[in-house]
Design brief:
With 94 residues, this protein is mainly alpha-helical. The protein has a domain of 63 residues. The longest helix is centred in the middle third of the chain and has 33 residues.
């Protein structure tokens, strides 16, 4: 019984927000982490090229661009296939 009382505030907050809103917020966090990781990969690729390892540097830059740009790529694919009214939107960086 004590466990149910301890989780009551958590469940009360979850009841106010819908599943779509929660999924949208979680996907936004995942996209933010992916953008940061992709940016780190691009910078690391630049440093690898500077050290003279051009093959690894080019692959790192291409991979970082794909990771960082994944939300925009997926959004354009959704629009191309006619399902542009998706729940999660890229939004504007502020």
């Amino acid at each position: 019984m004590a466990g149910a009382v301890r989780f009551a505030p958590l469940l009360a907050q979850a009841a106010n927000a819908g599943l779509v809103d929660g999924a949208s917020r979680a996907m936004g966090i995942v996209m933010l982490i992916g953008f940061i990781f992709g940016t780190i990969c691009v910078v690391g690729g630049g440093f690898a090229i500077r050290r003279g390892d051009t093959d690894a540097g080019k692959l790192s830059i291409i991979g970082g661009l794909i990771i960082a740009g994944a939300p925009a790529i997926v959004r354009s694919l959704f629009t191309a296939f006619g399902i542009g009214a998706s729940t999660v939107d890229i939004g504007a960086f502020q």
